[in-house]
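Before the break, one more example. Copy the sequence into your notebook; we will annotate it together after we see the structure.
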Amino acid sequence: MRCTVKKTFEIARETGNHLLVQLKANQAKLFDAVCVIADTTTPDDTAIAHNTGRSRQESRTVEVFPAGDVLAATEWQPFVKTIVRVTRRTWLRSAATGLWDQRGEVAFYLSSATGLTATAWGNAIRGHWGIENRNHYVRDVSCDEDKCRIRDNPGIMARARSFALNILRTNRVTNVAKALWDGALSLDHILAYKKI
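Here is what the structure looks like once it is written out:
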């Protein structure tokens, strides 16, 4: 069976679109090749951003690398044109102790697109995390999607969850877990939503 990510890159290319995906360590050979590129090549562009809040400070460095010749001999060469490395350093303040705890993360992203600045890549990646927080996190936590044991046609249940979340968002619900609980207790509560 072919790699799902590779199939997605193929579909994007066939339809005239570009793709940006996060590279995980489970793609060991590709991950190692990308690390070599990032460690031995000077980035085409770099952007640094800082976000500060009451109990959180984050510094992000976005570096853009051309895929180059390292991937030329691999099956990824027709798909991956740009490599983006994002280095995050985050300081979190503990409310209990008042002390700051530091953590760091390095993430790699691959894209079939070229020509964007490091700032544009950083904005695209942060935009994806907005989707992650508004959609996937809610599905995992409030809808227990990861615990779902449905094996036959799981897509039907996923669409039903999406339908329910879309109704809640259309009605400007901010606490999805509470809305789902209230809906489970009373059908009248569900039928009171607008635009059903």
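The beta strands are 20-23, 45-52, 56-66, 82-93, 100-111. The chain has a mean pLDDT of 84. Try to locate both features in your own notes.
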